[in-house]
Amino acid sequence: MRWxxxxxxxxxxxxxxxxxxxxxxxxxxxxxxxxxxxxxxRNVDKSVCGRNKCLKTSQIRASWSRRVWLHVDGxxxxxxxxxxxxxxxxxxxxxxxxxxxxxxxxxxxxxxESWDLQKKEKTPAWSMEIQPPTDTSGxxxxxxxxxxxxxxxxxxxxxxxxxxxxxxxxxxGAEHAILLSATGAVxxxxxxxxxxxxxxxxxxxxxxxxxxxxxxMPMKHVVTGGWHCACISDGADLYIWGWNESGQLGLxxxxxxxxxxxxxxxxxxxxxxxxINPGGKPLExxxxxxxxxxxxxxxxLLDISPSCEIRTVSCGSRHTxxxxxxxxxxxxxxxxxxxxxxxxxxxxxxxxxxxxxxEQKLYVVDVVCGPWNTFTAxxxxxxxxx
Amino acid sequence: xxxxxSKLSAVLPPNEEEFPLQFSDKVESxxxxxxxxxxxxxxxxxxxxxxxxxAQIILDLSWEKLNTGTWRDVDKxxxxxxxxxxxxKVAALCREHPSADEILQxxxxxxxxxxxxxxIMDNVLxxxxxxxxxxxxxxxxxxxxxxKTERPRVPVIKDExxxxxxxxxxLESFKSDYLLPLRPVILEATADHWPAFNEHPWxxxxxxxxxxxxxxxxxxxxxxxxxxxxxxxxxxxxxxxxYVLNRVSASSLTVxxxxxxxxxxxxxxxxxxxxxxxxxxxxxxxxxxITVNQNFLVQxxxxxxxxxxxxxxxxxxxxxxxxxxxxxxxxxxxxPDTERFPEFARAPYLxxxxxxxxxxxxxxxxxxxxxxxxxxxxxxxxxx
Lengths: 386, 384
What we know:
The structure holds 2 protein chains of 2 kinds. Chain A is mostly beta strands. Chain A has helices at residues 19-23, 29-32, 254-265, 355-359; strands at residues 2-8, 33-39, 58-62, 66-71, 77-82, 87-89, 96-99, 103-107, 111-116, 126-129, 145-146, 149-151, 158-160, 167-172, 176-181, 186-190, 205-210, 219-224, 228-233, 238-243, 283-284, 291-292, 295-302, 310-315, 319-324, 329-333, 348-353, 363-369, 373-379. Chain A has 4 helices and 29 strands. At the A-B interface, β21 of A face α2, α3, α5 and β4 of B.
């Protein structure tokens, strides 16, 4: 499995730039904003992790300033890159990882460990033992889910979850969370200020609350962004909700269009003005009576044209990326660091195919977003039925 | 324009070592490293592109933190980081022969830091913006031809419901007759000595000349309970053009309101035109929570119709249930729906038309309804 990255690279988390220029404080734009999908080098430190083979399974997670690459292949190997340099973490037997700006969490068959990335300590900041699963019927829980609860991004690390939720997968944003139950139901909780909980308003929720608008439609995958959520139904449809100030919902964004108009006459504003619409109903645009949406407080079905089945989706702070069943990658939302992969720094509220992969005849199988960048896995092209 | 940079750098620390960058643990070390990079670039010969890029990273990240959660929960450290981002960006913009447009952008950037950030380095952004403003020469010959001149629906004030008016009461009598019993009153001739009525009479032209290129928050829409209500950031010139002079057609149907804002902290020249009413000294000084404060509303230009209801009659005023709007009534005061809000007609009130020079005392927690009758400037004093 080969991985490509694009977007924010100020810390070399996608590819390391010339060491010399870094010291003198010289950061050219092209070093910091990677606009073209760039292949990640597998061999970080050949002596410790000298793998040349194309691995079947590997996993990437990204925080704002770092990226972690887990190679699962017999003796697993965790390679960290970005702020603080590249390093290989002692991690044989590691099956899963989660990366935040402050902690790296590793899952093993018998324990979970969280390492504080800001301190150079020899032991994890926190750890807990887990029982290997007694029933091997279902797939193992993936982080941040652990038996009985989940691991949060800041202390207290372990948080319990009610067993009646039957948590199957969980995604954590900075201030909100989305949970998928074994029945395909979706629950959200946390901050609701930008409609990111999908309950139709702006109020926050302390406890998991079912997203009623999706009731009756089983979902199979849930993800969070900075202020939005997305999920894929069993029928491979994509639903999305939350804040749309950069077009991250793929719906018409007024602040985005205004920002583009200002750019053509003068430099872009630092801070986009946001019009808040608590009712979740669209605002009238000024000229063409086009309907704009700044907050989508209920899930909306997003058709990525041409209509196609969605295989997986991931969200950054203010952008979204989706992989179709036909091996294409679509991205939309905030693009000022190149995180959309369209070879420019333009944000867009319309999902667009990342042509690079088509041009290179690469078949996209997975996508993982960091806050301001995107990592894409390509694999063997599946046999296409015509 | 190198002269401009020498003025700007004179208010900055002379070298990297004396430039403070201290943050609590809340700000991760990766973020601090970018701030340190900006500081390095400030004192080295980095390119303008690189300086701008680093500053923008700081701004983009701290902007995200400022937009996480409710405003009052945002950690002050992130607001400081945002201010540093603005500082580094202004330094990058105005270093090498900035164009007039770049200077305006610099002013806007300072304003963003003043509006959204927290004071850093002895409020250096305030100092920088004054320097930049001096560089900007604006012609003040704009005409005020298209001021709204029609006077819609001036209500007739019934004597038995009028807010009483008195001229310059003593502190003692104001305290015993109005402050302690929490009774509204209009103090006449109390603000007559303000420069805003004398040496610098406030007007649209005056506001433009003093603050035209400054960025301020504006509320758009007649009522903040309307669906179309929104907030935006405009320069004072844009606000005047779009909402006062109705020069921009799309805005001619909507109302813009420069409100709820510490304008006098941001634009100290205007502060010099006003005076704090003496009666404010009768308070004991705790200002943090606006909801437990008394208020003086001073009318400077134009007139406003105002109606006041006592907190004792809250049960007849049908406040909204939601936490965001629980201090707002659901009733349309001058056109109440008597079926939905039957008790409203029985709520006693006092009313007035506030004219230039009038100072209205609004006792703590009194419900207030305000409609501008024409172009209007007022100054509000919160005290306790």
